[in-house]
Amino acid sequence: MDHQDLRSFLELLKSEGLLVEIDKPVSTRFEIASMLAERDGTPMLFTNVKGHPGFRVLGGIGSKREYFALALGISSDRLLFALKDALEHPKQPEMHSEAPWMEERAESLDDIPFLWHWPGDGGAYATASIMFLMTPEGENASFHRLLKIDGRHMVARLVEGRSAHRAWTDTEEDIPVAISIGLPPHILLAASMSPPEGLFEMLLANSLSPTPLAESPIAHIPVPVASEIVIEGRLTHKLEKEGPFVDLTGTMDIVRMQPVIEVDAIFHRRDPIYQALLPGMREHRLLMGMPREPTIFDAVSKVAKCLNVYITPGGCSWLHAVVQIEKHAQDDGKGAGMAAFEGHPSLKHVVVVEEDVNIFSPEDVEWAIATRFQADKDLVVLSDMPSSSLDPSARHIPGKKSRGAKMVLDATIPWDSPAGASNKDDFRRLIRF
Description:
This protein has twelve helices and 23 strands. By secondary structure, the protein is α+β, with helices and mostly antiparallel strands. Strands 5, 6, 7, 8, 9, 10, 11, 14 and 17 form a nine-stranded antiparallel beta sheet that branches. It has a five-stranded mixed beta sheet with strand order 19-20-21-23-22, with helices on both faces.
């Protein structure tokens, strides 16, 4: 095989003893989601799905950084740099005329095991679904949750201002789309990134690992050969209610009127794997937050020597970050924290540490705050700033950008002169957590 697909990655997980297979009959209505939630962080493959013979359901393959690192053949602390390199060196994928997902067709969306995830949800959703379409700037691939209405219609959540939404608002015509479900980790990562306008995300995927594409038969939209399921349809200007839906922070997102997708054809591999992404849990958070680490790194590097960045799971992998720097000037810590907001405007709180602190260890970071930080000197608070719509404590005004406060905690070793810290030994770590 000249590329990694989902099945080859599952074999890799299996060889490492990381994949749990469930053979007992399970229901798509809350049962599978409940089992995924109970073992959040564990890849699980369900091989006996009630009402969906021939389909398997998979979840959790991106629920730890280590799984992405395994897929890319690197250590987990190098993930940021792999994503940064892909952004800086995109590679044009090969085009193939055939793909395994062209082998069979389904008659209806009812054949596909869309999951009910949480009580209170608006219905059965596809969540690991990547939508491919042509925009005025070029080809685009991005995650969109899809609420199933019936066997031929879904409602797509389009985030306002992003490429797909702009393409949709700029035309009165239906927009052909191809939706891919069942993809290996490197493609999930690429589709989560926010490259410069006009840069197709699959060039980033192909930089991470070979990612050949094949055109969908009806709309001739390039999608990954590695796809398990490909749904072709049209993004219409008909609107239906979308939601409620448990979002990234584990709180309930609101109901909106969103565009309907009319389905034209459904293709899939033999013995297809339907990929699920459990809303609000580890995999959702990692795929949202980890691709923002390179943009924070680049922004901080403009004002200080940045060594690494970690968007933390306790901050919903979206609102909190730890930035590691090599300190060369008295105000590098505060400057790095302020720059981090430029790299990821949704950030709410930033902790800045030095190279002797393990940014992936909450205990290490808290130790740095406890021993190196004084609130009256090392705290920066910014009031009434553009904020994240995912922060329920922010101020939300319909049609406007959310507003809230931001904070930088400079937990670097304090300097008592512009030349450095004369008492640096007082802050030296003698034990590690």
